[in-house]
Amino acid sequence: MNEVRLKSILDNDFYKITMQNAVIKLFPNEKVKYQFINRGEHPFPPGFGTALREAVNAMAELKLSRDEKEFLRITCPYLDLPYLDFLGGYHYNPGEVHIVQNGSQLEVTVEGEWYRTILWEVPILSLISELHYEMHHLQRDPNKTVVETTLEKAAQLDALHVTFAEFGTRRRHSYAVQDLVVDALVRNNDRGNFIGSSNVHFAMKYGVKPVGTHAHEWFMFHAAEYGFKMANALSLEHWVDVYRGDLGVALSDTYTTDVFFQQFDKKFAKLFDGVRHDSGDPIEFANKTIAHYEKHGINPLFKYIIFSDGLNLEKVEEITKACEGRIGISFGIGTNLTNDVGLKPMNIVMKLIAAQSINGDWIPTVKLSDEHGKYTGDPKMIELAKEFLRITD
Question: What is the pLDDT of residue 150?
Fold first, then answer.
């Protein structure tokens, strides 16, 4: 039997927790579907689907401990106490996850109530990644090298005088590597430029801040529920309704940044602390963001951008030089920290693909990122969204 298993129910990205709290409050009856997308066309060995099934089934045993609940209560006072009680009684239901392996191809879908299924995406991706390396018998760098590589990157980031968080759960090499990385970053953080982890379990284990707000699925669901024209504004409005000024970083690129800024008016620009960049040219995005704040009479130096799109040290340095003295910046570095171990990282995602309407029909969801022409979702719905939002490639 394969021994790749999750160790904690909090071994997940923080924005899944924050979104689940909001979904329970605002959308407790909505049903959704997610689908695994193998962007890198990685082949899976015989028995992979069975091993993944075993690991997913084992997640039913995970339960929030008393100490974990207390950590969330103290560290995240903006999470509703009834939600923490709910999470205390939550169990994964493996019946919501459907896994099929055909030869070297893997199909994984999740279906059910949004408030329950929202937690599956990140753990499934991390399990797929770890099982991939184990079942292909691929040898990574030794622990000493992993730590040295991490410390070298931390020193370079420190030299740039930038703050950064670890965002690498979903495509990590393994739990063990992420553990080594976060431990190394915490033990060598004299200047405090390492500000936290998106992984709630590791944030608790190492006494750092859990970092995150919301993901693309928040906006994708709103588009399916309310229409493309209203998706950005209602997503932001609902977020403010739930968090009242906390967790104030807005994700901008679900339907292109240009469309986002049309609805990110003076009210939202003042209410939110900043925005997150996740696709397209980061320097171009920074220039647009600075211009948008200045247009509304807001000093960009009082706001900030979190950059989180496939970062490496070269990109971080380039962005830092372009933004210095113009706007606050911080970085969320993922795969480059948790899967830089001498092997090729996987290119895998899991996306919300549909939401169920009141009459029971499934409405396809789409994402129109700032990577021109690199849109995801149902082709007909993509064309409809482009028409409604007047997006031209």
Answer: 98
Q: Find residue 107's DSSP bridge partners.
A: 100
Q: Are residues 81 and 73 in contact, defined by beta-carbon separation less than 8 angstroms?
A: yes
Q: Which amino acid is at 24?
A: I
In angstroms, the CA 97 to CA 78 distance is 30
Element (H, E) at 194: strand 194-197
> Which whole-number Å values give the CA distances from 154 to 89, 191, 230, in the listed order?
38, 11, 41
Q: Is the pTM of this model over 0.85?
A: yes
* Token couple for 115: 């408030």
d(CA 298, CA 293): 5
pLDDT of 115-172, one tens digit each? 999 999 999 999 999 999 999 999 999 999 999 999 999 999 999 999 999 999 999 9
Q: Do the Cβ atoms of 328 and 162 come closer than 8 Å?
A: no
Q: CA-CA distance, 86 to 84, in Å (whole number)?
A: 5
Please, what's the largest Cα pairwise distance for the chain?
61
| Share of the chain residues as helix, strand and coil, in percent rounded to the nearest 5 | 50, 15, 35
Closest Cα partner for 305 from 338, 264, 337? Answer: 264
HSE at residue 230, side-chain half, CA atoms within 13 A, is 9
What kind and span of H or E run contains 105?
Answer: strand 105-113
Q: In what order do the strands lie in the sheet with 97-102?
A: 97-102, 105-113, 31-37, 349-356, 362-364
